[in-house]
Each structure stands twice: as C-alpha cells, then as structure tokens.
C-alpha cells in the first residue's frame, strides 16, 4: 500500500485555504447562501432546503441514490460533480458565517447526514456517538464506498463554514469504529488517507494519528504521520523527522527522511579532511561522498529508464534500446 499523492496534494491545498485560488468568472450571486436561506431551490432537482431537512430525514433510499444534493448541502471552494452547484467564495463564506439562519440550517443538514450514517450529534461542541440505528447503518456504510467521498466533502465544508471544531470528534469516532471495533473496516484507509488530513489544526491531526499508530496492525506498515521519534542524522530538532509532504512523495524518496546538512569533510574548498591539513583551498571530496554520488546517478538513470519503459508500453511503442 502507498500514500496517494493526489490526496496529499488536494488536502494540503484545502488545509492552506487554497493557495493561488482564482475566483470563478461567474458573478458572485451568493447562490449557496440564498439556498440555505430557502430563497432558491437546488438545481437541477428544484428542491428547497426546508423540504430536504423535514422530509428527507430517515429516507435512506433517497439520500443514498440521489447524487445532486450533496454539493448544495456542503459547498466548497472547488467544483463537484453537480455542475449546477456554485463554488464558494471568500466573500460568501464570510456572509454565511455571519448569518444565523443559514448556520442553523447547515447544522440540521449535518445531523441529517449523520443520521444517515448511524451517528448522532451530542452537543454544540461537535461531539458525536453511535445512533440507535448504528448497526444497520454501519453495515450499509461499510459496503457503500461512494459515501466515503461524501464524508470527505462534509468534513471540508464544516471547516469552510465555521465548524472546524466539529471535524475531529467525527474523525475520531470513525477511526475508532474502523480500527478498534472492526465495524467499519473498509473505511480505515479513507479515514487515515483523507479524513484525518482535512483537520487544519496540526495538534489535533497528530493526536489522531498517534492514536491510530498505537492500534494499527501490523505496526511496521503504518504509513501516515506523525513521524516517529528517531535519533541520529535523520532527526531534526528535538529528535523528530520532517513530516511527509507532497513534494517529497512526488520525488519518490522516503517521506520521513530529512536532508543531512553538508559537513566539512564533504564541503568544497574547505580546510577539512582530505586536504593537506593546513587549510589549503581546493576541491576536496571524501571517497564516501563520491560513492554516494555515483550511487545516486545510477539510481536516477535506472528510474528514468523504468519511467520511459512504462510510458512507451502505455502507448504500445517498442524501442530496441529501452
């Protein structure tokens, strides 16, 4: 199993509030806010928010098989599968967060989906627990993987619209059910790969990952952060290793390995070992450094060759020198 570079990149952008975000070219008519104020229906179904909140609760077939409402109930600053749904903007987010009626309905929409998944909201702090129908709904959720994408969207939208604190309790419950209780085993990968990384506060994110690391089996196959404490050249300040980033993963290296600083022995033009001992300026490089450099060059050539073979095979091209 490998980490998904796409997931890491997508959630990195989300947690950092979409750097280099470009607002949609369409005029900002606050369509998401007006939908939550019950002034316009969702498109293309023509259904108002009040009808969804009052008539769809407990109608699990409708919630399962209708695929156009989720983008309206949980809007984001990114395009979803319903192209009639409009992306959020910074201005609309601020207006939404200051509108009590919209926030009240948003919480009702959240509890609607929690009930669909067999979960109930306990208080205004976001704490959650199993609902009375949890056995039936967990069994369905474990076998309905398209709902895993919906949950990612719900978590992201909670953070966008002022309910960031609600995310960690939900992720903790799903992690506990998937990892410790075994009721949602199929959801474990999505929980670790996506849900945990929607949480913007690093301390909360790392707390959940430490909990997961303690219970994950086999322990040596745990791929997610926080980095394990190590000693030696790989460890940074405080004995910690650099956290994995999309850039490190893209390069194919060990995501937990930090770059070692140059030493005097390996420096160019220094007065370290390998010179005349008098600080003579020159290009002195240790044998070990040369060996490491040759090894790196050979490894790079091999990787390029493998990538070229993969590319050519995908295009049904065979060259004798590859």
TrEMBL record:
<feature type="domain" description="Opioid growth factor receptor (OGFr) conserved">
    <location>
        <begin position="27"/>
        <end position="229"/>
    </location>
</feature>
<dbReference type="GO" id="GO:0016020">
    <property type="term" value="C:membrane"/>
</dbReference>
<comment type="similarity">
    <text>Belongs to the opioid growth factor receptor family.</text>
</comment>
<dbReference type="GO" id="GO:0140625">
    <property type="term" value="F:opioid growth factor receptor activity"/>
</dbReference>
<feature type="compositionally biased region" description="Basic and acidic residues">
    <location>
        <begin position="245"/>
        <end position="267"/>
    </location>
</feature>
<protein>
    <submittedName>
        <fullName>Opioid growth factor receptor like 1</fullName>
    </submittedName>
</protein>
<feature type="region of interest" description="Disordered">
    <location>
        <begin position="227"/>
        <end position="281"/>
    </location>
</feature>
<dbReference type="InterPro" id="IPR039574">
    <property type="entry name" value="OGFr"/>
</dbReference>
<dbReference type="InterPro" id="IPR006757">
    <property type="entry name" value="OGF_rcpt"/>
</dbReference>
<dbReference type="Pfam" id="PF04664">
    <property type="entry name" value="OGFr_N"/>
</dbReference>
<feature type="compositionally biased region" description="Gly residues">
    <location>
        <begin position="268"/>
        <end position="277"/>
    </location>
</feature>
């Amino acid at each position: 199993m490998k980490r998904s570079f796409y997931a890491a990149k997508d959630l990195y952008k989300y947690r950092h509030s979409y750097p280099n975000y470009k607002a949609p070219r369409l005029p900002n008519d606050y369509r998401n806010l007006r939908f939550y104020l019950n002034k316009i229906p969702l498109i293309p179904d023509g259904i108002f928010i009040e009808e969804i909140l009052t008539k769809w609760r407990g109608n699990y077939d409708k919630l399962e098989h209708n695929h156009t409402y989720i983008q309206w109930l949980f809007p984001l600053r990114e395009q979803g599968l319903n192209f009639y749904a409009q992306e959020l903007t910074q201005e609309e987010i601020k207006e939404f967060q200051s509108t009590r009626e919209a926030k009240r309905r948003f919480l009702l929409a959240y509890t609607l989906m929690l009930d669909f998944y067999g979960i109930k909201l306990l208080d205004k702090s976001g704490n959650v627990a199993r609902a009375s129908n949890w056995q039936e709904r967990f069994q369905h959720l474990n076998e309905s993987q398209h709902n895993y994408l919906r949950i990612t969207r719900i978590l992201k939208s909670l953070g966008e619209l002022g309910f960031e604190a609600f995310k960690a309790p939900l992720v903790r419950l799903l992690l506990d059910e998937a990892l410790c209780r075994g009721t949602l085993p199929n959801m474990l990968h999505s929980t670790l790969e996506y849900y945990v990384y929607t949480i913007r506060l690093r301390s909360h994110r790392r707390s959940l990952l430490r909990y997961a690391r303690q219970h994950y089996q086999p322990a040596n196959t745990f791929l997610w952060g926080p980095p394990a404490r190590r000693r030696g050249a790989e460890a940074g300040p405080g004995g910690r290793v650099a956290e994995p980033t999309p850039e490190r993963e893209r390069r194919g290296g060990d995501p937990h390995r930090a770059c070692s600083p140059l030493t005097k022995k390996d420096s160019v033009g220094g007065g370290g070992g390998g010179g005349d001992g008098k600080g003579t300026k020159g290009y002195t490089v240790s044998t070990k450094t040369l060996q490491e450099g040759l090894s790196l060059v050979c490894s790079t050539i091999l990787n390029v060759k493998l990538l070229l073979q993969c590319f050519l095979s995908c295009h049904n091209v065979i060259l004798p020198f590859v």
